[in-house]
Design a protein that fits this description.
1 helix
Length: 103
């Protein structure tokens, strides 16, 4: 083999080694500066989403409890209103009927 052929082959091999090292360095850069931060942010978003889901479930439970309590209060107010209406009707009858001593 001639010297020029050997030098050409060695140059190609050296170029491939440099290219592979460059590709590996680029891969490491991408992993360290893009993929790792994205993975951490995705993990943080997942944690936040879980917390929000938990909070939402508690709020739903509280809302159901408040709905039940509101229904009870509405029934109580309705009952009190009927009693007041009855008391007012008795008062109206008492005051509109002439007394026997006033006749």
């Amino acid at each position: 083999m001639e010297t020029s052929t050997i030098l050409t082959i060695l140059s190609i091999i050296g170029g491939l080694i440099v290219a592979i090292k460059g590709a590996f360095a680029l891969f490491q850069f991408i992993v360290q500066n893009i993929i790792t931060p994205l993975t951490l942010n995705i993990s943080a978003l997942q944690d936040t989403t879980r917390e929000l889901k938990s909070l939402l479930e508690r709020v739903r439970g509280d809302m159901q409890s408040l709905d039940k309590r509101l229904a009870i209060v509405e029934q109580s107010v309705k009952s009190a209103h009927k009693r007041l209406d009855h008391i007012f009707s008795i008062c109206d009858q008492t005051h509109t009927t002439p007394r026997s001593d006033e006749e």
